[in-house]
């Protein structure tokens, strides 16, 4: 498995498996399938309410813990230094592990400065190997990064061939950070799976549109975490190591970038939705 080196020296797989919108019971089976296929990076979050399913898979998979790379994220309702720190301990318990490989602030809302201090504390205590951010943009991103002691290693954003985050990639490069793509297959959009440009490139290598899209991201040094509940599709998404895109291929795909995102985190309605998220989706609320 190809890896990248984070700014603190930690090695991270460039291709992983995401479990967004997978319930806890099914998540165990999906994570086990993904690990059997060959994935070693599993991306979950407190707000996915399936960390325990990932934990059961970690416990049962038979792969040594140090060969896995587990990412989770602190949710808005756990924002603030003490509350966030307690929630990190709870994530460790659910994940059935002594440490988290990468811990992110999930959303730039609430007391995320306090949350970041909690993550720095967890990092220094050996509970976490690397820390970072998710869905932070522009001035808010710069303000946080310029005012913390432990610099973040990763920024996770919506990223795919139609929205390649070129501007944010340039910005985070100044801090030695890596981009991690959520929604790397444009959130399952038919537009990606039927795109004629990707199809033409894939035909040369005997690869699908999805495989070409994932290969492009990873070849650009972007960590991709595609999701599927079907083992055959997990395997197909994982099967991208046996071909290389030419520079001409990559330049063609770069021209597909529209810069348009499906989710706008500067939208007040989106902020209100996220702040009320727990009340709507927490199965224990």
Automatic annotation (TrEMBL):
<feature type="binding site">
    <location>
        <position position="106"/>
    </location>
    <ligand>
        <name>substrate</name>
    </ligand>
</feature>
<comment type="similarity">
    <text>Belongs to the aldo/keto reductase family.</text>
</comment>
<dbReference type="Pfam" id="PF00248">
    <property type="entry name" value="Aldo_ket_red"/>
</dbReference>
<feature type="site" description="Lowers pKa of active site Tyr">
    <location>
        <position position="73"/>
    </location>
</feature>
<dbReference type="GO" id="GO:0016616">
    <property type="term" value="F:oxidoreductase activity, acting on the CH-OH group of donors, NAD or NADP as acceptor"/>
</dbReference>
<feature type="domain" description="NADP-dependent oxidoreductase">
    <location>
        <begin position="23"/>
        <end position="256"/>
    </location>
</feature>
<keyword id="KW-0560">Oxidoreductase</keyword>
<dbReference type="InterPro" id="IPR018170">
    <property type="entry name" value="Aldo/ket_reductase_CS"/>
</dbReference>
<dbReference type="InterPro" id="IPR020471">
    <property type="entry name" value="AKR"/>
</dbReference>
<protein>
    <recommendedName>
        <fullName>NADP-dependent oxidoreductase domain-containing protein</fullName>
    </recommendedName>
</protein>
<keyword id="KW-0521">NADP</keyword>
<dbReference type="InterPro" id="IPR023210">
    <property type="entry name" value="NADP_OxRdtase_dom"/>
</dbReference>
<feature type="active site" description="Proton donor">
    <location>
        <position position="48"/>
    </location>
</feature>
<dbReference type="InterPro" id="IPR036812">
    <property type="entry name" value="NAD(P)_OxRdtase_dom_sf"/>
</dbReference>
């Amino acid at each position: 498995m190809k890896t990248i080196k984070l700014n603190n020296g930690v090695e991270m797989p460039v291709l992983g498996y995401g479990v967004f919108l997978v319930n806890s019971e099914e998540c165990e089976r999906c994570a086990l399938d993904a690990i059997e296929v060959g994935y070693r990076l599993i991306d979950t979050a407190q707000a996915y309410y399936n960390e325990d399913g990932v934990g059961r898979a970690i416990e049962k998979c038979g792969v040594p813990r140090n060969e896995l790379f587990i990412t989770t994220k602190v949710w808005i309702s756990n924002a603030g230094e003490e509350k966030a720190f307690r929630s990190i301990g709870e994530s460790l318990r659910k994940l059935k592990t002594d440490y988290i490989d990468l811990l992110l602030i999930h959303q730039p809302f609430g007391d995320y400065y306090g949350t970041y201090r909690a993550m720095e504390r967890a990092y220094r205590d050996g509970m976490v190997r690397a820390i970072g951010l998710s869905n932070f943009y522009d001035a808010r991103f710069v303000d946080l990064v310029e005012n913390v002691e432990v610099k973040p290693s990763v920024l996770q954003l919506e990223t795919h061939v139609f929205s390649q985050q070129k501007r944010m990639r340039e910005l985070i490069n100044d801090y030695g950070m890596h981009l991690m793509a959520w929604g790397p297959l444009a959130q399952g959009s038919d537009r990606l799976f039927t795109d004629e440009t990707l199809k033409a490139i894939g035909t040369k290598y005997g690869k699908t549109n999805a495989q070409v899209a994932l290969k492009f991201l990873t070849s650009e040094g972007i960590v991709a975490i595609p999701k599927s509940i079907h083992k055959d599709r997990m395997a197909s998404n994982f099967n991208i190591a046996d071909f290389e895109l030419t520079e001409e291929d990559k330049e063609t795909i770069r021209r597909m970038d529209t810069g348009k995102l499906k989710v706008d985190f500067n939208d007040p309605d989106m902020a209100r939705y996220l702040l009320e998220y727990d009340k709507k989706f927490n199965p224990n609320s």
